Amino acid sequence: MNAPDNERIELTPKQKKAQRARNLAIALSLATFVIILYVATWSKLGSNLFNRPL
Amino acid sequence: MARTQANPIEQPSDVSLLSAAMPGDYFQLLKPRVMSLVVFTALIGLIMAPGSISPVVGVVAILCIAIGAGASGALNMWYDADIDAVMQRTLRRPIPAGQVGASEALAFGLVLSLFSVMTMGVLVNWLAASLLAFTIFFYVVIYTMWLKRSTPQNIVIGGAAGAFPPMIGWAAVTGSVSIESIVLFAIIFIWTPPHFWALALYKAGDYDKANIPMMPNIAGAASTRRQILFYTLVLAVTAVLPTWLGFASMAYGVIAGLLGVVFVGLAWTLWNSPLNDKEYKNEKRLFGFSIFYLFVIFGALGIDAIVQRVFP
How confident is the model at residue B14 (pLDDT cuts 50, 70, 90)? Predict the structure, then answer.
């Protein structure tokens, strides 16, 4: 039997606030991770990054 | 030893049990105080290692070690949630306190373990990554899942997990393991039993309640005190090895020697003190000094390495 379309979980204000904070923390962590990879790649390869046959 | 059945954490079955965990609760899963010691000793290993490393790669290496150590802390809290819930010292950790679900902690720990090891491998080198992976495995599987609940030698063998960070820092720079990094490992490895047993002596009731076979609970306080004295004697000798082997100065050797004498003196005092002291003054003093000791020993090694580079 299918559940009615209008049946959904409603988070409490505290849960909503925590969910938003967690989402923000995950976004910041991922952004930091991307920046670290970018900077570390530049740092390791330097000008060799462009040293490839075209 | 069977796991106790005190774990209050179940999967959420209705909206009231859905997570209200804040990012700070997840941060607590990383055991930030343990992590800070790990970062410190890893940094010293990295500073002492011969050769050079790009500052950016050095920061990445330390970050990976910190996250890897934190991940193993989260996995430890996931597995030990049942005993954490019955011990006064660990009662307020995020899982027994009901702030984070056990499965969330497991996923968090696994993801961070994978990311820290892979990032270390790709951006630093694969030996450092392998050592980091082994450290996480050793702490979670060998220590937490196996030794902790089955033998009073748990923290003697398990102490290896906490001793690896300077070796990883060293390997991040050199891409190798050498006698110098093994000595750094040995200092923390031998330091661990007197440090933890001093704590276990005045928290014996807690460990008893949780059914954890710590040395004082199994062998008694007198035997534990004797073993603490033995390990501090070995530690006092091991800590001067960097000077004896020629990779630290005489100034470091003098500092390590003096600190070793004080450490042995405190262990001696504890060994000779009456067993009925319920304030545990000597145990607490030894525990506090052990933290100070490791901090000064590694701080001195780090300063010594910097001075030797600036004034060769």
Answer: low
Grade residue B6 by pLDDT with cuts at 50, 70 and 90: very low
Mutant choice from B13, B14, B15 vs A, greatest count of A C-beta within 10 A: B15
Q: Is the ipTM of this complex over 0.90?
A: no
Could you tell me which residues come within 8 angstroms of residue A38 by beta carbon, excluding any fewer than 6 positions away? none
As a whole number of angstroms, the distance between CA B143 and CA B161 comes to 8
pTM, whole model, 2 decimals?
Answer: 0.89
The closest alpha carbon to B191, from B244, B242, B228, belongs to: B228
* Contacting residues for B37 by C-beta, under 8 A, at least 6 apart: B162, B294
Note whether A15 contacts B60, CB cutoff 8 Å.
no
Q: Is A8 inside any structural domain?
A: no
Q: Which domain holds residue A37?
A: 14-44
Interchain pair B20, A21: CB under 8 A: no
The architecture CATH gives domain B25-176: Orthogonal Bundle (1.10)
Q: Identity (one letter) of the amino acid at B54?
A: S
Q: How far is A21 from chain B (nearest CA, A)?
A: 6
Write the secondary structure of B248-294 as one string of H (helix), E (strand) and C (coil): CCHHHHHHHHHHHHHHHHHHHHHHHCCCCCCCCHHHHHHHHHHHHHH
pLDDT (0 to 100) of residue B72 = 96
